[in-house]
Amino acid sequence: MFITFEGTEGAGKTTQIRHISEFLQNKGYHCVMTREPGSTKIGKKIRTILLDPDNNDMDSLTELLLYMADRVQHINKVVIPSLSEGKTVLCDRYSDATLVYQGFARGINIELIKKLHRLILDDLKPDMTFLLDLPPEIGLSRAWKQIENGIRTKLETRFEKETLAFHKKVREGYLALARLEPERFRIIDASVNENQVQREIIKNLSLFLFREL
Hints:
Shape: globular
CATH class: Alpha Beta
Strand order of the largest sheet: 2-3-1-4-5
Number of domains: 1
Radius of gyration: 16 Å
Largest sheet: 5 strands, parallel
Order of helices and strands: EHEHHEHHEHHEH
Helix content: 55-70%
Strand content: 5-15%
Structural class: alpha/beta
Number of helices: 8
């Protein structure tokens, strides 16, 4: 089973993946927690380039191709091997993030991104995607508090430093994708507290797992 978590900065994806991994492990599932970018040896180096705030002059196409390069490594070295072994993969961001950030927000042609994905994904789509949705003003405020408190590193703040208008486009892009694939997406209100978000995800996941039995 392949489950992805999407959302803007500060939505709480990383925290919720840990909660859901624990929930599934208790149900007998062997879970692998992973993320994009940066879950392989090469991917970690790509992540450093992509998220470094000093790289604010990066061309959008360069950014897109770096994400694609990371994804090729991630799929071939982590996702496919884990799924082949019968494990459940929980991933913090996947191909939807590229459509939204580089497509909707950066303005790169959506069909170009989809064409690249057809080349590298080989139709590897998540079984379920949780979209942790909240106004970007709230998400950015949370993210910067974590950065100031040392919970998150200042070395990975290139996207946090983007304009509010950029982050609004990201949110709109995610919601547009969710409307196109309602069977795969579950939109979760991430503006509420951590426990409420966790309960809502588990409720939706439990319904999905029951349906699959």
